[in-house]
């Protein structure tokens, strides 16, 4: 009898979770969208001022593209920024310093959260789950404490961990943190691995080449973002 009752509880919990995910995951088209601007170069939701934007930075090309994307962000609206950076990513730290140092405006503030890389270049897939779990824990602490109003990412491996945590927090009713994913300009015919995963999870999925929209109908084509 106890085993039967436990099975009913587990089955009911699983069913409730599946229903919740159906209404939460953007891929099912049920999650509310608050975007009102689709003008060229605007890949950020229009929200009230005094909001926090979470920016996920990778190394090399990802950071270079993100810095160009941030030129189209209304920093008066997003006057608080949280940058999530890999713990060994010195380039991104330098770029953040240049970007924020040039602004030096009152009533604006930014934070840098350094997290373990979810997967290093050349790392074996066998050891990836452990490093990914460490990244998830660090990201959970950052999102829980800072509670950003939107998340902007463009492909580094850590952004998968960030979005997964955001979806979990949304599912349990903690906070809805809309995710805007911008695929790299270099992806002309196919999505990156991060893009293929986040195509299912991002609230807004932006590509920069028209051919990708035909393959991925949820994608939004905005050219010349970077």
Describe the structure in your own words.
By secondary structure, the protein is an alpha/beta fold. 41% of the residues lie in helices and 15% in strands. It has helices at 2-24, 61-69, 90-103, 128-146, 157-171, 193-198, 210-215; strands spanning 52-56, 80-86, 109-115, 150-153, 179-182, 204-207, 220-221. It has a 7-stranded parallel sheet with strand order 3-2-1-4-5-6-7, with helices on both faces. Helix 3 (90-103) links the parallel strand 2 and strand 3 (109-115). Helix 4 (128-146) crosses helix 5. The longest helix has 23 residues, at 2-24.
| SSE pattern | HEHEHEHEHEHEHE
Number of helices: 7
As residue ranges, the low-confidence spans are 31-47
Helix content: 40-55%
For the sheet with most strands, the description reads: 7 strands, parallel
Q: Which tags fit this structure?
A:
226 residues, alpha/beta, 7 strands
Concise overview:
With 226 residues, the chain is an alpha/beta fold. The protein has seven helices and seven strands; from the N terminus they run H-E-H-E-H-E-H-E-H-E-H-E-H-E.
How are the SSEs ordered, and which strands pair?
Blueprint: H1 2-24, E1 52-56, H2 61-69, E2 80-86, H3 90-103, E3 109-115, H4 128-146, E4 150-153, H5 157-171, E5 179-182, H6 193-198, E6 204-207, H7 210-215, E7 220-221
Parallel strand pairs: 1-2, 1-4, 2-3, 4-5, 5-6, 6-7
Helix pairs in contact: 4-5
